[in-house]
Design brief:
Layout (H helix, E strand, L loop, with lengths): L1 H23 L5 H17 L2 H19 L2 H7 L8 H18 L4 H23 L5 E2 L13 E2 L1 H20 L6 H27 L6 H19 L1
Antiparallel strand pairs: 1-2
Helix pairs in contact: 1-2, 2-3, 2-5, 3-6, 3-7, 5-6, 5-9, 6-7, 6-8, 6-9, 7-8, 8-9
Length: 231
């Protein structure tokens, strides 16, 4: 037991180091880094470090996707630089809740994977899809890159690939024992959650009825619910 607690505190120290790095590299602001630490500590001591590593993977994939073709995105005015605590909460609070209770209720494991797969798929679809001509999901009319609710074949493919990576990693980290189940849950829940994000963006965010953070939060809830039913 003592050894277990010691190992967990080592991961907490590593989490603080990661938060410091993301802050210094201007990937997250100060409050965003602080919220990341708080959520990470909850996950470490309630579910285990392996669950946290899955969220760290999402963070890494998101940062890489954001910085991909940075100059081109800046020319379009679509480069999203330093993220805030609102971004961290809207993308991570559902997964944090699922992890906190995942050890007591098995379906929440699926919800955890679904929430992260959705956040990953949506981020990769947005950051990679902006490089290709998108269409509005509700009308399929061509729109400018970065339009709320816009989708593209490149972005959709990137989102599905990101969700699959989450599923494979969930199996490798021992979160889900069955590799087929892990991949199916992550791809289906991540894809549905990602499309839910686009639909909400087109119908509500474009009309200023919801903010981007609201849309992200609802999308991860959708992904988590789908994951719960699929696990």
């Amino acid at each position: 037991m003592v050894e277990f607690v010691t190992i967990n505190w080592i991961y907490v120290i590593l989490l603080f180091i990661l938060a410091f790095i993301t802050y210094k590299r201007k990937s997250l602001d100060l409050f965003g880094s602080a919220v990341m630490v708080i959520m990470g500590v909850i996950i470490i001591f309630s579910a285990g470090a392996n669950w946290l590593l899955l969220i760290v993977l999402f963070l890494v994939l998101s940062l890489l996707a954001t910085r991909y073709s940075k100059k081109y995105k800046m020319s379009l005015g679509e480069f999203e630089g330093r993220r805030t605590s609102k971004n961290v909460i809207s993308n991570g609070v559902v997964a944090c809740f699922m992890a906190a209770f995942g050890g007591y209720y098995l379906p929440f494991v699926g919800g955890f994977i679904g929430a992260i797969a959705t956040a990953t798929a949506d981020t990769l679809a947005s950051e990679i899809g902006v490089l290709y001509q998108p269409r509005l999901i509700t009308t399929f009319q061509k729109v400018d890159p970065g339009t709320n609710g816009a989708v593209s074949t490149l972005g959709t493919a990137a989102g599905i690939a990101g969700a699959a990576i989450i599923g494979i990693s969930a199996y490798l980290l021992g979160i889900v024992a069955n590799p087929f189940s892990a991949i199916v849950v992550s791809i289906i829940s991540g894809t549905i959650g990602c499309f839910a994000d686009s639909i909400l963006g087109a119908l509500l965010e474009n009309r200023d009825l919801l903010t981007n953070e609201h849309v992200n939060l609802i999308a991860t809830i959708v992904g988590a619910i789908v994951g719960i039913f699929l696990i």
